[in-house]
Structure formats: C-alpha cells, structure tokens
Amino acid sequence: MSRPGSNYSLRAFITAAESFGMPVRVLRYVDDKAKLSTVKSGNDEAYRPFFRTLSLSNDSVTSLSALSPRPPSEAEHVQTAYHEATHAYLDVRAKEEAAFQTTMGGWQMLFDGAPLADGSKGDDTDRLVQEAAAEYVGHRASRFWMALEAITYAGLRLEKTKSQERKFWDSLRRIPLAYNTAMSQRSFGYQDRGPFWSSHQVQTTMAIPGPLKDFCDRVILEGRIPDHFARATFAQRYVDLCQSVPGLDCRL
Ligand SMILES: [Zn+2]
C-alpha cells in the first residue's frame, strides 16, 4: 500500500521487474513507506527527504509500468527509478532504525576527505554516501536491463531478417563485453561545490568503499546483478540466440 497522498504506485513495475530477474525488495519497501508523487518534467525527478516523497515523471511511471525488453527502451527510466529509490530506502531506513543510522555514519567516515575530480577533497560525506550508493545501484540495474534489451532486439532482428551481416554479428558479440565493462566501473558519488547560486556537482574519483558496495550488492541488488555476463540470468538466452545463427561463434 502506498502512503496517503500518493498518486502513483510502483506495483506494476515491481511485478514486471521481478519477472525479468531484477531486484525488487527495495522498490517494495519504498512503495510501502514513501509518498509517491508524479512531476511533469524528467528534470524534477528526485527523492525529497523532508517530505519522504519520491517524485517520478508521468513518462517514467508509464514507461516503467509497461516494462518489457522489446522496444522502446526503458533503460533511462530504470536508472532513475533505482537511483531515486535507493535514496528513499537509505533515508527512510535511517529514520526508522537507529542501528541503520549508525551503519550509514560508518560509511560516511569512509568518504571523509575523498578525492574529487576538481582536485579538492570531499567534505559533504552524507551526500557522497547517498550519491555513491544511488549511482552504483542505478548504473548496475540499468546496464543489466540494457543487456536484456540488446539480446531481445537482436532476437527480433534475427526473426525478421535472418541477418547474416558482419555488422550484426559484431554487435551480437559485443553484448557481453559491453556488460562486463560497465559492471567493472567502481567510481561513483558526488557532492555539490560552490555558492548556492552557482553550485555544481563534482564527482569523486574514489572507488566505492567495500562495505558500501557489499551492502548495495547484497541487500539493495539482492545478489541479482553479477559482475560477469556469464553469471547473469539471461546468459543462456544469449548463448541460445548465438547458436541459432549459422556460422557464428559467440563465446562468453
Ligand atoms: Zn542522487
């Protein structure tokens, strides 16, 4: 049940995402405990801690509710939903569980003086932890989804054209590589710099600390988004697809 005042729900998205092997526990938690309120523009999508409100655009909600790996792509909306839901989850849990607030405090210490891309040292450790977790989770969920879309699009193309072109073979071979490269990225998180009238975001160059990464992998992503394509739920589907193309040698 969404909170009173909510004008959308994540339930259709959760049901669909779960059927494709994506993690949904955190989405359920947020659907239950945060107020869900739509905004007109994608630029206003955010989680607002003070109001415990997760705002997604009408476009995102419509797209996510009809989540399917066939075109059009939902990858951008998947990234936003997991990113903002991670903010909501961390914030609500820290407000409701003292022990979790302590855990967050421990992660913040790991970001004290974190190197930033402009050469300065990070000093907003609360923000750095929040954005590192949200970016890490959003990135991994959307790259997982993009790989599933890429396999599906290739299958549809094959059905239609029995494509034997070199270009098609190359793009099919690149799917696991693109996934593995994306999943090896480790530097996430940013904070604001400068006076409020011209503040800008500066990324940290530090790798996400082990304890926070572990929490994101195990708890938020439920161990469902592996580093290697070969271990993902859709790997077999990819191998089957490759084997259906005569003459194509496609390895993981
Ligand atoms: Zn964020």
Q: What do you see in this structure?
A:
With 252 residues, this protein is mainly alpha-helical. 54% of the residues lie in helices and 8% in strands. The strands form two sheets. Strands 1-3-2 form a three-stranded mixed beta sheet. A hairpin with a 6-residue loop joins strand 4 and strand 5. Helix 4 packs antiparallel against helix 6 and helix 6 packs across helix 8. The termini are far apart. The model has no long low-confidence stretch (mean pLDDT 95). The structure holds zinc ion. The site of zinc ion has 4 residues, from helix 4 and helix 6. Zinc ion (ZN) binds next to helix 4 and helix 6.
Arithmetic mean of pLDDT: 95
In terms of quaternary structure, what is this?
Answer: single chain
Termini separation = 42 Å
Approximately what portion of the residues adopt beta-strand conformation?
Answer: 5-15%
Rough shape?
Answer: globular
Largest sheet: 3 strands, mixed
Radius of gyration equals 20 Å
User: Which ligands, by name, code or SMILES, are bound?
Assistant: zinc ion
Number of E strands: 5
